[in-house]
Amino acid sequence: MIAIELLEKYGAIQKNFTKTAVIFKEGKLPAYYFQILSGEVKMNNYNDDGREFIQGIFYKNQSFGEPPLFLNQNYPASAVVVEDAEILCVPKESFMKLLNENPAISIKIIENLAQRLYYKSVMAAEISTHEPEHRVLRLIDYAIANFNFKKDSNGYLINFTRQQIGDLSGLRVETVIRAIKSLEKKGELKIINRKVYR
Amino acid sequence: MIAIELLEKYGAIQKNFTKTAVIFKEGKLPAYYFQILSGEVKMNNYNDDGREFIQGIFYKNQSFGEPPLFLNQNYPASAVVVEDAEILCVPKESFMKLLNENPAISIKIIENLAQRLYYKSVMAAEISTHEPEHRVLRLIDYAIANFNFKKDSNGYLINFTRQQIGDLSGLRVETVIRAIKSLEKKGELKIINRKVYR
DNA sequence: TTTGCTTTATGATTTGAGTCATAAATGTGA
DNA sequence: TCACATTTATGACTCAAATCATAAAGCAAA
Fold first, then answer.
1. Measured between CA atoms, how close is B100 to chain A, in angstroms?
2. B71, A111: Cβ pair inside 8 Å?
3. Helical H runs in chain B?
4. How far apart are CA B135 and CA B41, in angstroms?
5. Residue A181, Cβ neighbours under 10 Å: how many?
6. Crossing angle, helix A132-146 and helix A173-185, to 10 degrees?
7. DSSP 8-state code for residue B30
8. Which of B2, B128, B136, B164 best tests the A interface by mutation, with the highest count of A CBs <10 A?
9. Which of A152, B35, B67, B181 sits most deeply, having the most CB atoms within 10 A of its CB?
10. pTM for the whole structure
11. pLDDT in tens for each of the 198 residues of chain B?
12. Cβ distance B21 to B83 under 8 Å?
């Protein structure tokens, strides 16, 4: 997260998007640095038969879509608004200027990218070698550690739908539902009127 | 890749490792920045029943294992020598000093991490939503674009064993062998005395 | 409050990658 | 050159997750 004043100094403009709006499309060239002021954004892919994979979900104060920006490559995934969002957009050229003139920001960016790589590494190993229950549990634990899920007397409320968990972990909804039920039986998590707690 | 002279200025020492040596273990805290002078290194995980997943393979002039270094987190995977390797190691503290005193290097690091995130994004989507042939082909194409595989009249020689392709794409050897055979039939690649060309 | 959409849920069936067994070709080191 | 490990290869069988079908609960908006 970069200070809003700094972004504004480099020509950031605010854009507002409503639910389901597409911020950018897979395959397009990046033109902006994006930082979320409010709302929720996901990055996703679709395979040939329309099956979705969610690369990540991003919230207030988080940025997204930087890697292709730094590499001058096409976006490997699309960005879609999940909850109405206000987003600061800094044009590529001025963002690069910002970086060059503010070395401390580079370190922030490095930490941010490192964090996301870490997540991808863990999930890659999960997805390719572990069974569904393990995958679901790991995803939930990662989400607790990284998103600000609310904690109450039942534990952390996992603010994902079963479908989202599936799309993040490469499983089908039904499989996620069954995995969650089974994990509940094993005492790994709780289901209280359809909401998942851990 | 950071200039060797610069690394030496910040106290880099060279260590030599032989095939199968473990440079660091999953779960340990990072203490060094590593850059390869010669040889080949893989980063990998094992799941509970001993199945391997290869996070990435690294060659001359490449660095590896930085994300946890920047985050003060445990390594999410181990680093194992694939071909005898000479490696420059810079102690964490002096590497951080190097970064602070050389802002241009930060940009390099950012580009490097961005590149790896890009790969992980593509492979994550592949692994979780595509069939084996697609996964194998994408991995091969990525490898051609990023490693210096040799090109001759038959095309690029894919310098991976079937097992390595499997461990990188989350498939079993037999499945990879069958996928490659089928891709050959479809004309997507060639097999010339057991070697894969594309 | 009615209508329609999303989310959770469950059972039956299918299927494709994993598993197992086996072997030949190749490479490596003693 | 011999012994052993690695890599590629193929066929038969298994099984777990995907698929398909269906439905009820919840929610959102008209």
1. 8
2. yes
3. 4-9, 66-71, 92-101, 103-129, 132-146, 162-169, 173-185
4. 22
5. 11
6. 80
7. P
8. B128
9. B67
10. 0.91
11. 999 999 999 999 999 999 889 999 999 999 999 999 999 999 999 988 888 999 999 999 999 999 999 999 999 999 999 999 999 999 999 999 999 999 999 999 999 999 999 999 999 998 988 899 999 999 999 999 888 788 888 999 999 999 999 999 999 999 999 999 999 999 999 999 899 999
12. no
Alpha carbon distance A27, B122 (integer Å): 12
Q: Which 8-state DSSP code applies to residue A130?
A: S
Q: Which residues from chain A sit within 8 angstroms of residue B100, using beta carbons?
A: 103, 107
Please give the Cα distance from B160 to B138 (Å, whole number). Answer: 14
Q: Residue A24 in 3-state DSSP?
A: strand
Residues linked to residue A16 through DSSP beta bridges, in sequence order: A86
Residue whose entry in the numeric block shows the structure tokens 């440079």 = B23
Residue with tokens 């096409």: A74
Give me the residue label for tokens 């595989």. Answer: B149
Q: A102-158 pLDDT, tens per residue? A: 999 999 999 999 999 999 999 999 898 889 999 999 999 999 988 878 888 899 999
Q: How far is residue A175's CA from residue A179's CA, in Å, rounded to a whole number?
A: 6
CB B123 within 8 A of CB B129: no
Q: Which residues of A touch B114 (CB under 8 A)?
A: 66-68, 70-71, 113
Calpha distance A154→A192 (Å, rounded): 9
Cα four-point dihedral sign A132, A44, B141, B134: positive
CB contact under 8 A, A71 and B125: no
Contacts for B104-111: CB closer than 8 Å, 24+ residues apart: B105/B2, B105/B6, B106/A103, B106/A106, B106/A107, B106/A110, B107/A99, B107/A100, B107/A106, B108/B1, B108/B2, B109/A106, B109/A110, B109/B66, B110/A70, B110/A106, B110/A109, B110/A110, B110/A113, B111/A70, B111/A71
